[in-house]
Amino acid sequence: MKAIYIATVCAALAIASPARTADITPLTPDAKQVESSSGWTFTVAPYFWAAGISGDTAQFGLPEVHMDADFSDLLSNLDFAFMAAGEARYDRFSIFGDVIYTKLGADASTPAGILADSVDVTSKTFAGLLGVGYSVLESPSGHLDIVGGIRVWSVDTTIGFNGGLLDGVEGDDGDTWVDGIAGFRGNYFFTPEIYMTGWGLVGAGGADIDWDVALALGYKFNETVSAVAGYRALGVNYSNDGFVFDAVQQGPIVGLAIHF
């Protein structure tokens, strides 16, 4: 039971790792950019989200457990993370995406060591967002877009037993779902270099609700590079056939945007 509890918490932490999320494209300011000869502008933005998590989760047919972990708890179990967003923009229209992948690992010894000497837990999480937007308000100082899209989640947790009667036995649990989302995103330049950016999104589908809000302050070094720092909160409530993830993730976020 202790090993399976670790697995459920580890899976939850994977989703809440600094990789989740999605909708980072507002961190890529498009106001006052130099357009290409075709009229398109493109932005690529690696980012980092130091999020903690609170909520409830359940896996492997066990009752729900409450989780409450800060970012340091996540970082101690993080094996690998990749986070990046991108946007293509033409006139008032935009296409944006966000790709997140995390891998968390943990291990624990078992009492007495009869069934197993130790247990290894690996949790992998993928979250991908693809959306489109249209500027309903636009000026030389900024813009406000109405947006819509889909977000795909995939979570997989594996438990492996070492030694004892269960040596070599593995168990796997996870799920994949898709949510439709809609909302607003935009930015406003106070000066040619300093701007504010943010977004608010909400949706549902596989999940009962999927929401995401953020606000950040940015600095544009030149026409090619910008940087932002702010705060983001994301909530999702998903359950299916014994798999439950009902949580709120929040924490500071920083990003670097490269325009071309």
Automatic annotation (TrEMBL):
User: Hey, what's the signal peptide range on this chain?
Assistant: 1-21
Q: What is this protein called?
A: Outer membrane beta-barrel protein
Q: Which of UniProt's keywords are assigned here?
A: Signal
